Write a sequence for this structure.
């Protein structure tokens, strides 16, 4: 991801692998893909929040939501271009609630460089006890 407009700072993002983004503090984050192998979502539990990006598509993440984008075809490198809704964009570390957002266990395992069993143990440990 490269941001080159005045007031923005360059940010490198390799989405040949899975990438779990942090919660962003600006109004909007947009991602556009010139490659047809990207997907983006901020909560896969709701189908309207998921998009398989085709060439030229754009996906906008609302402020404050944990989101991710990934390359669904590892054999084809993917490129994504993003822009922040603020010239002073900042990030906040992902809270433990990321494990309750409905993001697929495979994506979380790859994003955190672990296995699915570990992700499921983390989810179980964070589950609300009723």
């Amino acid at each position: 991801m490269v941001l080159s407009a005045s007031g923005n700072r360059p940010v490198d993002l390799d989405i040949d692998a899975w990438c779990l983004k942090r919660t962003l503090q600006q109004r909007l984050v947009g991602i556009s893909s010139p490659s047809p192998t990207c997907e983006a979502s901020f909560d896969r539990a709701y189908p309207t929040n998921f998009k398989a990006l085709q060439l030229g598509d754009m996906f906008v993440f609302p402020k404050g939501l944990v989101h991710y984008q990934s390359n669904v075809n590892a054999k084809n490198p993917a490129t994504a271009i993003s822009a922040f809704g603020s010239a002073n964009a900042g990030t906040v570390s992902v809270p433990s609630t990321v494990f309750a957002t409905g993001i697929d266990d495979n994506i979380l395992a790859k994003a955190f460089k672990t296995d699915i069993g570990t992700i499921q143990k983390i989810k179980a440990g964070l589950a609300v006890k009723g």
Remarks:
- The domain at 19-93 is CATH 2.60.120.10 (Jelly Rolls).
- The longest helix spans residues 116-126.
- Helices lie at 105-111, 116-126.
- The beta strands are 19-20, 23-24, 28-32, 38-41, 50-53, 58-62, 68-71, 81-84, 91-92.
